[in-house]
Every structure is written in structure tokens, then in C-alpha cells.
Amino acid sequence: MNKTLQFGMIGSGSITETHIKSIRSIPNAEVTAIFSRNKETAEKLATKYSIQVYSDYEEFLSNDEIDIVTILTPSGTHADLGILAAKKGKHVIVEKPIDTTLAKTNELIHVCREANVTLSCIFQHRFDDAIVDMKNAMNQGEFGQLNFGAARTTWYRSQEYYDSGAWRGTWELDGGGALMNQSIHYIDLLLYLMGPVEEVHAYCATRAHERIEVEDIAVASIKFKSGALGLIEGNTAAYPGYSATLDIFGNNGSVIIENDQVKEWNFKSGNHYTKASGKVVRTSASSNKMSSYESHKRQYQDIVHAILEKRDPLVTGEEARKSLELILAIYESAKSGIPVKM
Fold this sequence. Notes:
With 342 residues, the protein is an alpha/beta fold. The protein has 10 helices and 14 strands.
């Protein structure tokens, strides 16, 4: 794998630098260009990382040196931008969520397939040590029958956060609130580990913020197709902000993840968790010894290798669609007041 894939970044917001650092930290990858409508922030990044700036999207896509685009714009623009890129023969990576509607998502998946380009979505927590180890334990049968799974994100976002961009907290461009924006990572992990959902019954509310159209609190009861049950909480009204937790309970063992670290790891087989310190980690995410973009780096490695090896990445467009579909079903249930079958 001697070829170096050239990346073009789309968007120059606060997360863009994490992606640039992640890409530049791996072999066979380089960032060479950035497109943004915010000239000031784009030029700052361009100067810092010696990359070319574009303010015209068609001109950006016409750069034949760009192999892959990473889309880091408001959620409701992901599919439209990705479709144009795929039609120009670019591989497409989008930040979560893949988009805000299933119709646009389906079109993006279809166009990428027809153009024979790779489509992936950033769900970097699948590459966390804790999740990789839990998935391995599951594949080895350590859990036995899965009975219950829960994903809870109890965070806080200030009114200033929502006021910082006209698109924040809107259905059109944010696609939702605490679920679609903040909780989607752990919802993705819940589906990745527990499997598909059969039915959901949910409530959503806007309790702690003004001038937003979307929820800042949501709760949902879930029935998985396996017969297991589950819960989801999404919350950006939990001052001052607490944790993201994932519970997976089976007949033969249970694991609790808190802030991306193993909090509890208990199996009847006696399987012990010995990562790093040799004992279960019981500290907050602020003590995470991994660099802040280590899991992003691992996902980019997987995507680059997938392209070069002509295989699917771990997170395909179809995989990314699953969390969007579930969140939209939660919104539908909350609006109708009745359970929704998937």
C-alpha cells in the first residue's frame, strides 16, 4: 500500500482540526485542500497546515488530486454535498449523522454505490479500546444471550451554544437535538452491540433552552428483534454535564462503559479486564490516556486501508443509516404518542 490518498476537507468549524490531525497521523494519507464558506477560519487552518483554500465547491471538486472528501458541515447538508462529490469520483466521509432524513441518506448511499466510491460516516467510538474489547468478548460468546442494553448521554449545552449558529437546534440543518447531535454516538454503539430494534416508544421535550425547535431531553423504551429490551436517554439539560454510559447485560456477563472507559466488566467465566492499568478503569473521560483523536485516527486508518484494499470499511453508509433510522422512529413515537415498529 504505497499510494498516498489525498484528502479535501469540507467545512472549517471547531471539529475540522481534529480530523486534519487524525489524517496526518497515519501513513498513506495527506490533507491537501479545504473548502469553506467561512474565509477567516479556513485561511487560519490553511496557513497552519499548508493546505489550499477553496471558496467555490465546483472548483474544489474539480481538483483531480483530491481522492477523498471529509464533510464537516451542518448535518442537513451532508448528503447533498456528498452526492456532488461522489459524482466527481471522490470517496466520501461524513461526520455523524450521515444526514437528517432517510430519503437523502438513501440517495447518498445509492449514488456512491453507482459511482463505485467508498462511503463512510464518523463513528469513532467503535474504535475505542473498550468497545473493541467488548465486541471481541461478545464474538467469543462471553455474554451468552443478550438481555438488556442501555445508552444514556447526560450532558449539558448552554443557551449560548445553541445561539452560536443559526443552524443549531433547527430541524432543517441540525436534524434534531440531544439525540441526533449528542447521543447518536452511543446509540450507534448500542445498535452495533445489541443488534436491530423491533419497536420503540418514546417521549421528547424541550425544557431548559429557548429559541430551539428540537428536544433537549428524550427517553425511549426499546424492544430489540432478539427479544432483549433496552433504554435510551439523550439529555443536554443536565447541568453541569455528567457522562455518556453504555450498559450491556447478558446471561453470562455484563459490561458498563462510562465516558468511553470500562467501568464494570463481569463474566461468569472469570474473564478479567486487564487493559493498561491491569484493573477496571473507574475514572472520568478527562483522565483518558489516549490522545484526543486516537479513535478518529483508528477509524481513518480503517477507511484508508479499505479503499486501498478494495473492501468495505467497518462503518459503511448502510451501518450509519441504522442510528438515523432509530432516532427518527423515536421522534415519530414521541410525536404520535404510540409505539413505532421499525
